[in-house]
User: Which sequence fits this backbone?
């Protein structure tokens, strides 16, 4: 893949902390850049580029991750960057060092990009204000997971074209979901119709003010939609009982072929992963690769993260001021 860095228009933000506030042009720019990496990543010959040769990316994950952490590492390596992976278990956070002190310590080593995941909403923004390198959010609490929404949008766009023509149903544990929030922002910004389907206990109050139509019944909410995005039931974030039992939850809100019959016949099935099979989605439906694009979402994750790293780490961006995001 050939590319000339001087051809890449500048991105007006230092960081990517969320989708909220990004313009349709900025989102399209990141998706177009991602698109350019999809075929590159599929080639059988060397996938290694030297775009970010000599640059340093630090993955700082305060929460578990398979897809996001691995794909950021792969993306950085494919662009030729040096990558450091830090986990809480192996860091001085275990000795009591604070988030900010950890960030300042890493900042003193002059990384070019910090990719951060944290369990508290707002923690990644706080950290970004203390460092002078670019920061990309790998997800913060129930706030946002911007690269997940971008990879979801890329997957949809490649399959269905214009996002503005689509009705997307986001189903399940919305209240705990940063994926849902980032997707609501992105889909609304790009002109799609957004539906949220969940029991009342798993919906934040006034969520409809974000620009979504709320349903408490799968059959009604799925009617004639183009895309079904299932969300993981995040039991690790639940302090109390949000539903009577997993069995009952699956009965009313788990995606089965029976419920799927309400959508358009060619509706795509999505899930950000990790999946709870038999809880929010029937195993057969998840593995129905005529309609399920769950594996494709993972593939698009690498392309999107390459685009984000390339964009946040442009050549000549040595004057890294305060975040404008
Ligand atoms: N979708 C997602 O963020 O997955 P991981 O938690 O495995 O990164």
Assistant:
């Amino acid at each position: 893949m050939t590319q000339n860095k001087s051809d890449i228009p500048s991105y007006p933000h230092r960081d990517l902390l969320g989708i909220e506030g990004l313009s349709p042009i900025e989102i399209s720019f990141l998706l177009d850049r991602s698109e350019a990496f999809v075929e590159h990543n599929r080639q059988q010959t060397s996938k290694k580029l030297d775009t970010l040769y000599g640059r340093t990316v630090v993955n700082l994950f305060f929460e578990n991750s398979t897809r996001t952490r691995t794909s950021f590492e792969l993306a950085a390596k494919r662009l030729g960057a040096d990558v450091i992976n830090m986990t809480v278990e192996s860091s001085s956070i275990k000795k009591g060092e604070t988030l900010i002190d950890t960030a300042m310590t890493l900042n003193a080593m002059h990384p070019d990009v910090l990719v951060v995941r944290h369990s508290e909403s707002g923690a990644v923004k706080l950290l970004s204000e203390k460092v002078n390198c670019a920061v990309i959010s790998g997800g913060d609490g129930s706030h946002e997971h911007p690269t997940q929404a971008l990879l979801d949008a890329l997957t949809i766009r490649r399959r269905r074209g214009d996002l503005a023509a689509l009705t997307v149903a986001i189903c399940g544990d919305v209240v705990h979901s940063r994926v849902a929030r980032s997707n609501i922002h992105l889909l609304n910004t790009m002109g799609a119709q957004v539906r949220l389907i969940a029991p009342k206990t798993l919906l934040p109050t006034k969520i409809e003010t974000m620009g979504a139509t709320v349903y408490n019944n799968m059959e009604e909410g799925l009617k004639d939609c183009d895309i079904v995005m299932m969300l993981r039931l995040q039991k690790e974030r639940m302090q109390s009982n949000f539903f009577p039992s997993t069995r009952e939850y699956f009965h009313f809100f788990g995606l089965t072929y029976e419920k799927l019959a309400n959508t358009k016949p060619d509706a795509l099935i999505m899930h950000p992963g990790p999946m709870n099979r038999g809880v929010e989605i029937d195993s057969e439906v998840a593995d129905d690769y005529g309609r399920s694009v769950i594996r494709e979402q993972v593939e698009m994750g690498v392309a999107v993260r390459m685009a984000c790293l390339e964009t946040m780490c442009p050549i000549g961006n040595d004057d890294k001021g305060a975040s404008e995001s």
